[in-house]
Sequence to fold (109 residues):
Amino acid sequence: MEHVCPICHQPTQIDRDEKNFKDYICRTDVDKHVYMYRIVKDTMTQLKVRMTEEDGSKLYFKVLYDQDRSEVWTKTNDNERINIGKAFVPDFSDLDKLKVKIKTYLLFS
Fold:
């Protein structure tokens, strides 16, 4: 099975290959995004994404599917992670809309 980054559509690389899991990563355009995820028994259990805004600020989110929760944060809030009590499903087909969703979580938390 080929693993492809949904942001830039380039193949991801294996970052860690352990007995119980594999971590995949895309650093194709590290200035614009980093996309990482963990596969355990053919199932994605974690997803972590960093996206860069036009002004250079960075938005982060992590989805812990195995714990049914998510986290969002920025570098400007001292890396304080906002816990979201559910695992949200990111829609990478519209990155601007996804960024707005993350900013909304940050604003109202």
